Amino acid sequence: QVQLVESGGGLVQAGGSLRLSCAASGRTFSGYRMGWFRQAPGKEREFVAAIRWSFGSTDYSDSVKGRFTISRDNAKNTVSLQMSSLKPEDTAVYYCAARPPERNVYVYWGQGTQVTVSS
Question: How far is CA 118 from CA 35, 38, 111, in A?
Fold first, then answer.
């Protein structure tokens, strides 16, 4: 059974940094696309960043490009999101998700971790 467990959220001042981690287990993720999404209060969940597990190619939303970096550690089976130059509008619950290669939707989701950026 696939499990995704996020960690690393917290409270940080604007301009600061945080690193989120997603521990993935239950299968090998070769060929999967791993993503980070976020949902702010009263808003829909939105895409933040994604990485192809096998090739390491990445994709970012315009709102975080240049400030956030997604990476994966094959040995530890983790996906990380390094967030820098944080803004109050980055405040949200951040979710890790996994999309199998044969699907065009993210099938597996973590429980989320809260990130709060104070001004």
Answer: 25, 17, 23
What values do phi and psi take at 66, rounded to 5? 90, -10
Q: What is the mean pLDDT of the chain?
A: 96
Distance in angstroms (rounded) separating the CA atoms of residues 30 and 118: 38
Can you read off the two tokens belonging to residue 15? 């301009």
Confidence class for position 55, pLDDT limits 50, 70, 90: confident
6 vs 42: CA distance, rounded Å: 22
Cα dihedral sign for 44, 48, 53, 59? positive
Q: Which two three-digit tokens encode residue 88?
A: 């109050």
CB of 50 closer than 8 Å to CB of 34: yes
Largest CA distance in the chain: 42
Unique residue bearing structure tokens 């970096």: 69
> pLDDT by residue (tens digit) across 77-96?
999 999 999 999 999 999 99
Q: Which residue has the tokens 């939707």?
A: 105
Distance, in Å, from the CA atom of 76 to the CA atom of 36, rounded to the nearest integer, reads 18
